[in-house]
Amino acid sequence: MNKQILLASSSPYRKALLAQLGVEFETHAPNIDESVYKGESAKALALRLSISKAQACQALYPEHYIIASDQVPCLALNSKEVLLSKPGNVKTACEQLRLCNNKYVHFYTGLCLLVPNGSNDHLPQTQQPSIQRMQTSVERFSVKFRQLSEHEIQRYITMEQPLNCAGSFKVEGLGIHLFDKLDGSDQNSLIGLPLLKLCQMLRNVGINPIE
């Protein structure tokens, strides 16, 4: 049976990552409310938004296996978790990088895989595998910003223009110059899609290109 896969994202970076897995897929950008609940942690927000994205797409593509992810960066400041948003303008982007200067920033990447209802109805009851309809995970990846000069901060923002990127940088571009340490199990999660965990989820539902 052909299994149709949908990536709930318009990000070219997530699309490129998923393509590495050797599966055919379509893409659709879900339209959801990404407002933060009062007191919501970065981890909880990343998980909730990834599930919301997947469910929004499943309503439109009920026959597809839906893959969705969402990433929320944060840093600890005065013993409090500070969420980093998309800056939107140069002034805010520079302020964010100054805030992150010489500090650890933690990226929580939520991942959700939804299985279409009735995906195994064509099989006899005795042959139907026990498949979990929703699989979720939150992966944490941390980066340590090095000590940046004001010139480096402004030069980076001018060159990369990361105004629509949470945290004000693109790790898949010049942003790698901003760090002196990376800490996590899957660097792909830093770009927005934890491939190791996703491969495991796909195998759980019988999707394995090398089998």
From TrEMBL:
HAMAP family: Maf. The keyword Cell membrane does not apply. It comes from Agaribacter marinus. One of its GO terms (molecular function) is nucleoside triphosphate diphosphatase activity. Its main location: cytoplasm. Nucleoside triphosphate pyrophosphatase that hydrolyzes 7-methyl-GTP (m(7)GTP). May have a dual role in cell division arrest and in preventing the incorporation of modified nucleotides into cellular nucleic acids. Keywords: Cytoplasm, Hydrolase, Nucleotide metabolism. Pfam families: Maf. It is found in: Cytoplasm. It comes from the Bacteria. InterPro entries: ITPase-like_fam, Maf-like. Belongs to the Maf family. YceF subfamily. CDD domains: Maf (cd00555). Its EC number is 3.6.1.-. This is 7-methyl-GTP pyrophosphatase. One of its GO terms (cellular component) is cytoplasm. GO terms for biological process: nucleotide metabolic process. The active site is at D70. It catalyses: N(7)-methyl-GTP + H2O = N(7)-methyl-GMP + diphosphate + H(+). The record marks Y13, Q71, E172 as: Important for substrate specificity. Its cofactor is a divalent metal cation. The keyword DNA damage does not apply.
